[in-house]
Structure to design on (958 residues):
């Protein structure tokens, strides 16, 4: 690897990296010309609707579809048992990297037993969605209700009802890590603080619901799928393997994707059923989830209870941390990425910014008769950071130290990397100290403290929150999905090529859902080759047109896909300079490429436009010496080596006001300083942080999938499930510290989850600071008004 | 199953449209499915998210809460018509420059609502803009950039008026 701080083509004056280039997709979106999956209709398209289990747990004893089948417009009715016959086998949502993990095998639709409310049982396909829904109401299903597991707190008790009797108990997975000597550290500690934290279930609520249009050509076995997906190649692999199709004949296209946030990297039974219907009918089949279906069947996340305690010296040194995680998941471990990552990430990252070396953590994951949970933006981090940062504040309060000061004394030093955290993860290239001091300055912390104190005297209760964080981004190949047996690429790839016109095409395996991944690749390519950004067109989201890759999730697009693009662009640049050298009879080392022209290095006198090389390279190769074989297209892949993740770091600040009579929280301002390494496009990076922070605030204050004792979801609409709207959200000040990662030449780390990962932590700390005069503490999220009023002993 | 159908005549984006529609069909389904105006989006179908916002007889409504049959004789404007009219081209350009959208799914509805706000030609404080826009859900941006874009456009229009 290149030594850090070396000048690369991206650092030059003519590079377009580091600039606020506008997104092409945005130009379409503002005119209503984005094209999402539901906007695409093919000739003879038919539409799927589903009959879903109304019970959280029930045997399916009889299904009568005759009346539905006879309806005008209905072309197919398929039961779960019929779909099972079209599958090569069940899904099993385990990974070998979690060796003792267990789950029950699962088919895309319930076969003889429904295990959560909303699980698909029968599919009806008709010539319109309305006709399919009408006919679905005429399907008659007889159920025999079974005992329900509705609470994680009792799911692991000996006499609990069972989600899957074959598994003998409801324990999906248990893991313990124990480093240093936690027992001794607690026994000898000056002070110990302790609390139990409870986090409610919430879900992604992408504004565009899950969507698929599957079109199968029976004669050639070619399947084309348009779907709102972050991971087209993974979807291609899984759909082909589940339905027994030749993988290379399955094309998956992700057109405009209307929000995803980790929702659209999983396998959902209704999407597989719709595809199976296309196989059976030889016609395009469309399925678009409605909002109720989204609440009932999209993956949920976050339902965890964590008990934590921290040992601290009177001087403010964190000596030890111990946590116990009880994670409530759904009826199956979500295929193919599992449902245990959230707890595993809590275990990995809690207390991650700090230097203590005594750490003990246990995680237990319990199945329940609820919709499966899995990876959603910042997996586990909102919980781990909330727990860790709340304990740090409790420790500070105990010893009478300022929350900034205790963090200053315990965060890892900027010159101390690489190092290993107490949980055993390797971290490098971090900047906790610089981020903390930047935050204090930007918040005008001392002034804010003064303002808070003087307002408190007037009966206005404002609070200041601080929350440092680490965030695992860009997972490497050693740890998880691919290594665990799932068909998910951890490396990624880019092809960069010159066209006869001299313009550049860049095709990448990572995908864009509005973050501006395509624009980032455009800037990297333009910067590395030496062309104007408008000379570069980026292609993504189509398995036929891009090299094989993992797609976009876990803040990996720029860190992994960006490096692949950079290397491919450098390879093309090197070839273009060789070709120019041959044509100009010059040493390539004496030439440069700037804004699409080959120029003399240094003087920048234009020698020839790239269009000339494009023309000769493609059409008139006779002008080149015989020993030169133009390639004009370069594909590079990039993989991490041993690192589990490229860890990033940062720190949030928040200023809130609590109305102690109503329990309402007003967010006045939030600050984020984060370190994503090299920033390719500042405005895109800023908005990732802002949007992510508000998504975290949603979980901290409003969002909650509320279930009753029979595991029935009580709030499956946007009327009852609250999301952050413009009037409640604060302005968010964002700053970036740019410590390049040493694992790539590009130097970028992930940025998409830095907001979500610590926003709940900082808001909870600020709220607790606001109500500290009442000696009250909130340890429950979402922090709804009733939670606040209970904490304040008002109700 | 038997449906009632109704004949309607209306103006959509300045063009005369005659159609026979099921009585139960929403305006936004009619616009999307029958007229292929896919710029209006369906996010919740129960009137909360605002992604289907369109203008009917000069007023912004939720396209999922209005029946196509109710619009007989009406003048309907969608994002496609709003764009072609250039009424908010300055706002649209500022949305792009300020990156006031990510996935873009909420954007047509946001622009419809913001156009109504800009037409008021009032000077509004930032929190008032937030309040006005609070019927449109955006999951991506956190709203800060959207409020910026509206504020910038509002200020630029006032500046232009002054000069």
């Amino acid at each position: 690897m290149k030594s850090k701080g070396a000048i690369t083509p991206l650092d030059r004056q003519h590079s377009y990296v580091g600039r606020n280039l506008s997104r092409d997709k945005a130009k379409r979106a503002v005119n209503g010309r984005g094209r999402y999956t539901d906007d695409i209709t093919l000739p003879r398209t038919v539409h799927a609707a589903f009959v879903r289990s109304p019970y959280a747990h029930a045997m399916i004893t009889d299904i009568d579809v005759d009346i539905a089948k006879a309806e005008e417009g209905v072309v197919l009715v398929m039961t779960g048992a019929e779909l099972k016959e079209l599958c090569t086998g069940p899904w099993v949502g385990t990974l070998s990297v979690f060796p003792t993990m267990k789950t029950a095998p699962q088919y895309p639709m319930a076969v003889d037993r429904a295990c959560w409310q909303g699980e698909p049982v029968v599919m009806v396909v008709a010539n319109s969605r309305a006709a399919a829904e009408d006919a679905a109401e005429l399907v008659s299903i007889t159920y025999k209700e079974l005992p329900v597991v509705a609470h994680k707190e009792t799911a692991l008790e000996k006499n609990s009802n069972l989600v899957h009797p074959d598994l003998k108990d409801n324990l999906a997975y248990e893991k313990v890590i124990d480093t240093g000597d936690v027992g001794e550290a607690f026994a000898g500690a000056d002070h110990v603080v302790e609390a139990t934290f409870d986090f409610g279930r919430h879900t992604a609520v992408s504004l565009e619901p899950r969507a698929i249009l599957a079109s199968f050509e029976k004669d050639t076995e070619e399947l084309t799928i348009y779907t709102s997906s972050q991971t087209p190649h993974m979807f291609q692999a899984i759909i082909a393997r589940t339905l027994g199709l030749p993988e290379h004949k399955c094309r998956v296209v992700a057109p405009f994707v209307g929000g995803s946030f980790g929702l659209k990297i999983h396998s959902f039974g209704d999407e597989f059923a719709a595809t199976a219907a296309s196989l059976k009918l030889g016609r395009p089949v469309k399925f678009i989830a409605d909002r109720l279906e989204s609440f009932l069947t999209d993956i949920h996340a976050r339902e965890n209870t964590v008990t934590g305690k921290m040992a601290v010296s009177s001087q403010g040194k964190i000596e030890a941390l111990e946590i116990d995680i009880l994670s409530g998941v759904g009826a199956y471990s979500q295929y193919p990425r599992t449902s245990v990552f959230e707890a595993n990430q809590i275990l990995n990252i809690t207390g991650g910014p700090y230097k203590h070396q005594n750490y003990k953590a246990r995680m237990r994951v319990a199945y329940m008769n609820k919709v499966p949970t899995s990876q959603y933006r910042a997996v586990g981090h909102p919980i781990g950071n909330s727990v860790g940062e709340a304990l740090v504040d409790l420790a500070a309060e105990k010893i009478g130290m300022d929350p900034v000061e205790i963090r200053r004394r315990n965060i890892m030093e900027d010159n101390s990397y690489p190092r290993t955290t107490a949980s055993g993860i390797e971290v490098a290239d971090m900047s906790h100290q610089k981020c903390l001091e930047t935050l204090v300055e930007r918040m005008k912390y001392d002034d804010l403290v003064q303002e808070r104190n003087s307002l408190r005297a007037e009966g206005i209760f404002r609070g200041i929150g601080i929350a440092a964080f680490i965030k695992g981004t860009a997972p490497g190949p050693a740890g998880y999905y691919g290594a665990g047996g799932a068909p998910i690429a951890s490396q990624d790839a880019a092809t960069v090529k010159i066209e006869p016109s001299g313009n550049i095409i860049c095709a990448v395996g990572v995908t864009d859902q509005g973050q501006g991944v395509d624009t980032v690749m455009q800037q990297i390519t333009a910067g590395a080759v030496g062309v104007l950004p408008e000379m570069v067109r980026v292609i993504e989201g189509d398995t036929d047109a891009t090299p094989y890759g993992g797609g976009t999730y876990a803040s990996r697009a720029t860190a992994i896909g960006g490096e692949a693009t950079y290397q491919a662009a450098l390879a093309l640049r090197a070839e273009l300079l060789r070709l120019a050298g041959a044509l100009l009879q010059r040493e390539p080392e004496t030439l440069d490429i700037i804004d699409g022209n080959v120029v003399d290095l240094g003087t920048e006198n234009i020698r020839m436009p790239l269009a000339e090389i494009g023309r000769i390279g493609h059409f008139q190769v006779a002008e080149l010496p015989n020993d030169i074989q133009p390639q004009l297209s370069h594909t590079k892949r990039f993989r991490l080596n041993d690192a589990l993740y490229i860890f990033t770091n940062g720190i949030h600040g928040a200023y809130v006001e609590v109305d102690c009579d109503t329990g309402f929280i007003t967010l006045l301002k939030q600050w984020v300083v984060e370190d994503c390494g090299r920033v390719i496009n500042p405005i895109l990076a800023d908005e990732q942080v802002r949007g992510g922070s508000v998504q975290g605030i949603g979980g901290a204050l409003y969002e909650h999938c509320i279930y009753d004792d029979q595991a029935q979801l009580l709030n499956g609409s946007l009327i009852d499930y609250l999301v952050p709207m413009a009037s409640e959200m604060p302005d968010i000040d964002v700053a970036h510290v740019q410590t390049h990662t040493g694992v790539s030449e590009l130097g970028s780390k992930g940025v998409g989850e830095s907001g979500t990962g610590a926003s709940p932590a900082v808001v909870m700390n600020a709220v607790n600071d606001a109500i500290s005069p009442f000696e009250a503490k909130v340890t429950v999220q979402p922090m709804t008004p009733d939670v606040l009023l209970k904490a304040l002993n008002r109700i | 199953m038997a449906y009632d159908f109704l004949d309607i005549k209306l103006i959509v984006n300045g063009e005369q449209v005659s159609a026979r529609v099921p009585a139960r069909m929403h305006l936004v389904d009619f616009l999307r499915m029958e007229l292929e105006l896919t710029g209006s989006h369906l996010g919740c179908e129960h009137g909360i998210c605002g992604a289907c916002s369109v203008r009917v007889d000069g007023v912004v409504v939720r396209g999922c809460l209005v029946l196509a049959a109710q619009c007989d004789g009406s003048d309907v404007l969608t994002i496609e018509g709003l764009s072609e009219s250039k009424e908010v081209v300055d706002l649209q350009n500022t949305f792009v420059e300020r990156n006031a959208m990510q996935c873009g799914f909420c954007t047509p509805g946001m622009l419809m609502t913001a156009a109504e706000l800009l037409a008021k030609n009032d000077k509004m404080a930032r929190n008032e803009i937030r309040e006005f826009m609070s019927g449109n859900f955006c999951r991506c941006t956190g709203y800060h950039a959207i409020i910026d874009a509206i504020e910038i456009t509002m200020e630029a229009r006032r500046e232009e008026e002054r000069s």
Summary: The longest strand of chain A covers residues 646-659.
